[in-house]
């Protein structure tokens, strides 16, 4: 098998040691559970409204609880949820305005809520050992001082995060600011969460890792292969890969381009017009799709070029059903936020090696599995850090590297400049087999302990996580 094919399938194989071809044979089963494509409407996650507002802060209540949710038409599936919703309710925050969320755990497992991509104090970061025990509550404070971005929140309880996220604990958290003026907004600003799931014959969740061929139902906002009726105008689509171990390569069936305007940490320094957008677990991209040139009745499918069956390839069908006025626009590069110079001369350099140990069957960072009592890196506050992340995995897995607290810049891949879609702020970056990726960041604002890990989250649960401590 060619290296590019192994790289493409690395996320799909998860922790399994089966050859990728074996997984394809197991998974290429057509329409799982007999689901008819494009017969269920897309669900937009509900927006959560604050129960109280002060001059500077919005306050929310969220209860983590089990709920019966319809995934397969005519059946219900018991899931872990935030406020009974799957995906969890969307929180729309404003830059510079604090959000406080009172999280109550009514689940049978301990949890920890991580706001992925957020710049927050350690006691609100969702450290894997900072647990909300069953029957208890905790307040999380988010200052929202960073640029507008598509963030997401999910469980991060140590040894339980992969299963709890797989069972439903994830939702959108969207920060807005003035740079977004003129972009499609309101009902034309659509968050789309992509993930897969394994359901048995009674529509019950089956979680196991590895799971070759089992996770063959791909969901968009909790629905398999939905349709979405659109107007003939521009839409802003917020794409989130919330899968445990599946990669997506998005493209439109009519060959039209996507205009990427943002990555994990917010707006790019320049728009990117591209036929495809590739996202690995936890990565986000915001794209503008213009349906204005299509006739009423036109249908366009959002496809995943990494899919192994029809149900995993043809994800979402857009159906143009009406005309609508459109005063939105694609921003010019001059209107997008500039990236500050890095000043690499005085940077501290660190090396991180990600790999799977076949002998011990452990996923490791620098040859070690996670130990919450061990600090792997001591980081000086405000000091520029350059990390060289090398994937030396002998099995050939891709790994998705995520650092808490900071947004970073991708400096290069194997010595070459990063592709245009990775030239903005990132908090998660894919490192393919044999690849070396350099990232740069400053740990500003807070001191304390945070983690960094692979966000093929089954790998993190299996030990591929380290700990850093920010000191003055």
CATH topology of the domain at 3-39 and 183-335: Immunoglobulin-like
Mean pLDDT: 93
Instruction: Please give the CATH class of the domain at 3-39 and 183-335.
Output: Mainly Beta
> Can you tell me the CATH superfamily of the domain at 3-39 and 183-335?
Cupredoxins -  blue copper proteins
What gap, in angstroms, lies between the N and C termini? 49 Å
Which CATH-level-2 architecture of the domain at 3-39 and 183-335? Sandwich
Radius of gyration: 21 Å
- Give me the secondary-structure category: mainly beta
- In total, the number of strands is 33
Beta content comes to 35-45%
**Count of individual helical segments:** 5
Task: Sketch the major β-sheet.
Answer: 7 strands, mixed
The shape, in one word, is globular
Which spans have pLDDT < 50 for at least 5 consecutive residues?
Answer: 1-29
The percent of residues in helical segments reads under 10%
Question: Can you describe what's shown?
Answer:
This protein is mainly beta. The chain has a domain of 190 residues: Sandwich (Immunoglobulin-like). 7% of the residues lie in helices and 42% in strands. It is built from five helices and 33 strands. A seven-stranded mixed β-sheet has the order 13-12-11-15-20-17-18, with no helix packed on it. The chain has a six-stranded mixed β-sheet with strand order 1-14-22-21-16-19. A hairpin with a 4-residue loop joins strand 23 and strand 24. The protein is globular, with a radius of gyration of 21 Å. It starts with a helix and ends with a strand. The relative contact order is 0.15. The N terminus is likely disordered.
């Amino acid at each position: 098998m060619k290296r590019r094919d192994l790289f493409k399938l690395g996320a799909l194989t998860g922790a399994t040691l089966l050859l990728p071809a074996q997984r394809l044979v197991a998974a290429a089963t057509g329409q799982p559970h007999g689901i008819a494509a494009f017969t269920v409407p897309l669900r937009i996650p509900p927006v959560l409204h604050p129960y109280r507002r002060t001059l500077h802060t919005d306050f929310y209540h969220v209860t983590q609880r089990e709920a019966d949710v319809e995934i397969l038409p005519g059946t219900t599936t018991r899931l872990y949820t935030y406020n009974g919703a799957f995906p969890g309710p969307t929180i729309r925050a404003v830059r510079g305005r604090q959000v406080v969320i009172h999280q109550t755990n009514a689940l049978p497992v301990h949890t920890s809520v991580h706001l992925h991509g957020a710049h927050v104090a350690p006691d609100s970061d969702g450290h894997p050992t900072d647990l909300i025990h069953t029957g208890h509550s905790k307040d999380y404070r988010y200052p929202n001082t960073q640029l507008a971005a598509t963030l997401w929140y999910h469980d991060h309880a140590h040894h339980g995060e992969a299963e709890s996220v797989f069972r439903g604990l994830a939702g959108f958290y969207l920060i807005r600011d003035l740079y977004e003026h003129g972009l499609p907004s309101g009902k034309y600003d659509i968050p789309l969460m992509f993930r897969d799931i394994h359901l048995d014959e009674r529509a019950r969740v089956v979680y196991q890792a590895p799971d070759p061929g089992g996770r063959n139902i791909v969901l968009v906002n909790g629905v398999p292969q939905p349709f979405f009726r659109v107007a003939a105008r521009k839409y802003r689509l917020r794409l989130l890969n919330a899968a445990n171990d599946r990669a997506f390569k998005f493209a439109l069936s009519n060959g039209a381009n996507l205009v990427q305007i943002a990555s994990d940490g917010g707006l790019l320094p320049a728009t990117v017009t591209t036929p495809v957008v590739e996202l690995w677990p936890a990565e986000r991209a915001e794209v503008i799709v213009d349906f204005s040139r299509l006739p009423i009745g036109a249908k366009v499918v959002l496809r995943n070029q990494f899919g192994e069956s029809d149900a995993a390839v043809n994800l979402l069908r857009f159906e143009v059903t009406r005309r609508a006025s459109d005063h939105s626009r694609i921003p010019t590069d001059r209107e997008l936020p500039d990236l500050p110079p890095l000043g690499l001369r005085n940077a501290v350099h660190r090396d991180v090696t990600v790999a799977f140990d076949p002998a011990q069957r452990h996923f490791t960072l620098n040859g070690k599995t996670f130990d919450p009592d061990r600090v792997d890196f001591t980081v000086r506050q405000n000091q520029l850090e350059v990390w060289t992340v090398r994937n030396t995995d002998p099995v050939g897995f891709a790994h998705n590297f995520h650092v808490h607290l900071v947004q970073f810049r991708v400096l290069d891949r194997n010595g070459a400049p990063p592709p245009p879609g990775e030239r903005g702020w990132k908090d998660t970056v894919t490192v393919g087999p044999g690849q070396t990726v350099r990232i740069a960041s400053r740990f500003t604002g807070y001191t304390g302990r945070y983690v960094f890990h692979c966000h093929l989250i089954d790998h993190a649960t299996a030990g591929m996580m380290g700990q850093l401590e920010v000191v003055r």
